[in-house]
Fold this protein.
Amino acid sequence: MNRVFISMQDGVDEPGWFNDLEPFVQKALEELKFDGEEISMLLCNDTYMQELNKTYRNIDSTTDVLSFENDEEYEDEEGKWKCVGDIVISLDTLPVNAEYFNESRNDELKRLIVHGLLHLNGMDHGEEHIEKGVKPVCEMLVLQENVLEILKDEKIIK
């Protein structure tokens, strides 16, 4: 069992599919063998994402997804939990990426979620990124694509 907390940036409208996000995240966590872990996810706009990217990565531009590892642990009445960290996804960049990759917004959102989860699991892809028509070779991106294949029939954005 895992805990997932999803929120919206203040002033950004909650998308109609917001309530369908958590069930997908739970399935992705299960596929990635997360257990007893807690993550938080924030959906935001490009302006906020650019601020985060500049503050934490010294890159003065927006991006699609950022992950912030935590690894704190705590215990409550339900058991022990490991707070693995936070994922931030830009809702402004989502449709831009979907168009670039010639994918549905649903498939692109799933890619961003799995990508963020893999970063929280300590994985990195170095300089390699997913590119149109190019099969990934690094372990993280290969695993990402394998998990997305397993979850291909899952719908968040209907």
